[in-house]
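Predict both folds.
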Amino acid sequence: MKPLWRVVTVPPTLQGEAAVRFAEGARRRGAEVLEVRTDLHGPEDLDPQALSRGGPLLVSERGRPLPPAWVKAARYVDRDLTVSLDAPAEKLLASHHAERPLSTAEALKLWDCPLPPGALVKHVEPMDQPGHVAVLLETQSRLIERFGAERVTVLGMGAIALAARAVLSRRNVLEYVAMGGEWSAAPGQRLLEDAFRDFRAPRRGPARLGILGTSIAHSRSPRIHRQPFDRIDLPEQGPVEALVDSLLPHYAGFAVTSPFKLRLARHTHSSLEAINTLVRRDGRWESFNTDVEGARAVLQRLGGQETFVLGDGGSTAALRAVSAEVGCALRVLKRADITAPLSGAGIWTWPDRVTPPESLHFDRARVAVIAYGAPGRRIATEILRRGGTPLMLGAAWFVAQARRQRELWETAT
């Protein structure tokens, strides 16, 4: 058994040949096991033999019984230990999905049951508090003591569980990951590309890096920084302060993006209005704002003239910090201030998930876009629609601030 198998679940919208093509694509991108579940597909929706030709097939019973043809084609058969463990011994994956967070003692008691030698063990709990990661790690260690490191998987579930899953993955046998896009098999899953990049990277010790934000599937940070680097996508009102505190033993640093730059500045008692970088030093988080490097690069590209700024979040704080240095007067506009078409040079700092006011129009203004990738392209389209000319400066901002982040993370203790 390899130390980790990356598992991707077939989406419920795909059947027949479409499901086979999905499986082929997932395996090309680094998935090792394909899962099909009875709550997502019926017996006639899929050809299990075709799905198993490219690699191991995991079939999971969720409410409805497993079709015999699925069990025959499968390498692993997931059965809930509280329902039935009726599966070929050499194929059994015994699982339990708890309805609430459990103490380690409660979790271990569930597993006081006879299992066939070699059967895999999967224990899953919902996470309602970030600090529960410590309990899950203890549960994982105790289950490994009981069943062996080559058999155990422990997972957290829920909107704040992604970072816990990344930490737990170091000792898990199975890692359930999402392909990306609009659908994932469970809340809190890592992206396949992040898990595969982590797997291929040389080991550099226990500490991880990551990026904290909302709607950050497009982020390029995991591609350019040393691994493991986790994309931790949280709800906008998520408990990010408690999360970073609970992850202090496991992470050397974080990049911080919208909408958490101001909240984490306050939480870390920073003298800065907003921060975008956390570095672990001497058992605590130290905070920095390397966005000033990106802000300097963008303002210099705009030529140092008076510049209007749309949005007043963490990026605007960085622009304020360097505007005098580059000889640029900033005019920060609140939404209510926008009543007439804007001209000259400007910077759009709103994330693309923020709907701009209907009153926003441009009179041939040159507007810098500091997002990149698909969000940057969507913002550029909006600027064109409203009469402006977009300047795609997101990459310049990103590279300038990332260089400084890398230097800071190298100083982590």
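Second protein follows, with its predicted structure tokens after the sequence.
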Amino acid sequence: MNRINRRDVLTMLGCSAAAFPLMTPMAFAALPSDNRLVVVILRGAMDGMDALQPYGDPGLARLRPQFEIGPEAGATDLTGFHALHPYLSPLLPLWRSGDLGFVQAVSTPYRAGRSHFDGQDILEAGTAGDIPPMTGRDGWLNRLLPLIPGAHGRTAFAVGREEMLILRGPADHASWAPDTRLDMAPATADLLLHAYHDDPLFRESAEIALGLAGTTPSVEGKRGDALFGFAASQLRQDARIAALSLGGWDSHRGQSQQLRRAFSALSAGLLRLRADLGPTWDKTMVVVMTEFGRTAFENGSRGTDHGTGGTIILAGGALNGGCVWGDWPGLDEAQLLDRRDLMPTRDVRAYAAWALHGLFGTGRAALSSVVFPGLDMGTDPKLLI
């Protein structure tokens, strides 16, 4: 039997493992500050009341009778009112160390039609509710960059099949997308992993490549872990801001099974980021956002539909965590928005703005007029240590 070397494998694949990470939407910015910011966009509208279950409100069990809710169903109690979804429980050590927190009942100003596309555009553009025009639109991270003195070098770049709107705009940045997408049979993917198994230099790159591409079911579960690992490798160098996105959060049917996979991937990704950043984790804040929340009540398919009020997940060693921010509006029918959605009690942009203020010293006037036009930042929630 002839021995197949790694070069033979790559020749058969017709591509380079080193290029595979450039397959999934991700963006980076290099800044002079020693602090790091990671923004994660969860595409599909994460159900924030499943991630952080307000089981202390009796309305939750009434509105979701077939859902598994609270500590009795396997969730981890955090505050006596809130419980952490079972598949986010790997993050419990972060909560206990003050490196994890949540913001409840938040949303963008978007109210028009609960469209994923419009909601995501408004979230990434940071606008006051109007859908940004197709031409000339830019993102709030791009508008931030010129406000930070001394930005240099790789001020920003986007990596993936599409440029993320959150970093699009006139501020210096670059983007790259592959001409073809990786489409590999399971047997071929296994062959690549086997070929690199004993190679300390290329084994991790091969795992990241296949994880980013979601090539096989056996590797797809590592996708979030791979994304965050690749981001950490850039943040350890000259990148100071990273933005990436994770799909799979639309849970109209079978929400329990759907979010089990999504929460597991997010947990693995955040833990991978902490491990790979090492001491840099202490200077890092992670802001996990989604375009809107979901209905307060379950539907006939054991899922939830597009809603309004949602949840931000915060992490990082720079976070003053171990707590839940935001006012709880209640789940009685009269307290719901349009008698169907969790009522938002604060603009999601306000928390992003205060994070930028604390990490990079950006002034409030610029944040509320340039980065997030029309934003009332309100009082400081004191997110950072």
